[in-house]
Design a protein that fits this description.
It is built from 13 helices and four strands. By secondary structure, it is α+β, with helices and mostly antiparallel strands. It folds into two domains: 13-187, Transposase IS200-like (Alpha-Beta Plaits, 2-Layer Sandwich), CATH 3.30.70; 193-259. It is globular, with a radius of gyration of 19 Å.
Amino acid sequence: MPRQARRHSQSGIYHVMLRGNEKKAIFKAAEDKNKFLDLINQKVRETGIKLYAYCIMDNHVHLLLRETGEPLGAVIQRMGTAYAQYYNQKHERVGHVFQDRFRSEVVEDERYLYAVIRYIHNNPVKAGYLRGRHYPWSSYLFYIDERKRQKWPEFEEILRMFSENQNQAVRLFMSFQSQQDDGVFLEDGPDICSIGEAKALAARYLEKGHWTDEKLASPEQAPETSELLRQLQQDTGFSARKLADLLGLGRERTRRLLKLK
């Protein structure tokens, strides 16, 4: 079946996601995330493309970009190729690093632009990271810290949409970021890991580890349960809430377990 052509954005703005091949973690260490962030910086400088938000998770990346001349696909392809070369050399491997071609959706209006930025910054929150929006590998800290923000004039552009007064804009931005996401975004589309696939994967893990309901609920097994949850999260891309529902665990307990090291 031929690939469906990408929808063209009249605004030039796209929400882009790259996922690790087979949904595996491809940013396993801080240096991996820093390397990809360096590549983002490099490609932005080289091409003039505008970056409005980013978040680098363990097995996927979200970017909010505006095409300014060079086709977006070419920029993302070079970024992905450069990281794949680094990753394969570091781990002495060959083959694909990213899953298929990147996924994208158009962002045509201001309301959805705000919502996508919030969604991207909330990825670590949904994944149960202790630092949440203060996660080191997202653009959120650059939005709220004036010294960091000077590096990205596009972030000032977004903040001015909230208020011309900089301090007021930051306060409004932070308040907006803390609100609930109710929309359906790129990662929630029908062609990512389905509930059925996730259930089958979880069942294999549970059978392999001889997991029972009692073992999952046991405080003594918390480190092992935490590792199970993190592995499932890497392989499915599910949020803490979805993982809790998948395994029949309490949502708050699931979030706590994901924070364990």
